């Protein structure tokens, strides 16, 4: 157990009596091959996360929802801008993409008037802004 703690750098190596008297005992003098010295407490960066891409979509027809769902399946966040869309199309798009997001364990957030953020399960949405239209629902902007 002492060797493991010494290897991990938690304990210092015990001092041999021969070393105290000025004799240097090495691995080679014992007939063993010399061990390479290891750096104790070396910090290695594990920052290997790749860059995340966000897709921005402004659907003009219901046929565009398949591409939006494909982006969510590929674990890419999607921002949907429905400000210029017809109210009927906007409702159908939001309903479909909401269902796809739910099926993929993702989440959604209304960002602005007619703008929605849909994210897959590997992304969390943190909202620090106070939502004034919270009581009106997500389709309140269509009126």
Unreliable runs: none
Number of H/I helices: 4
Q: What's the average pLDDT?
A: 75
Q: Outline, from the CA principal axes? A: elongated
Can you describe this structure?
By secondary structure, this protein is α+β, with helices and mostly antiparallel strands. Helices cover 26% and strands 13% of the residues. The protein contains four helices and four strands; from the N terminus they run ααβαβαββ. The chain has a four-stranded mixed beta sheet, with helices on one face. Strand 3 (107-112) and strand 4 form a beta hairpin. Helix 3 runs parallel beside helix 4. The radius of gyration is 30 Å and the shape is elongated. The N and C termini lie far apart (72 Å). The mean pLDDT is 75.
SSE diagram, text form:
Blueprint: H1 2-8, H2 17-20, E1 55-57, H3 65-73, E2 78-81, H4 87-103, E3 107-112, E4 115-119
Parallel strand pairs: 1-2
Antiparallel strand pairs: 2-4, 3-4
Helix pairs in contact: 3-4
Task: Throw out a few tags for this protein.
143 residues; 26% helix; single chain
Describe the structure in brief.
This protein is of the alpha+beta class and 143 residues long. 26% of the residues lie in helices and 13% in strands.
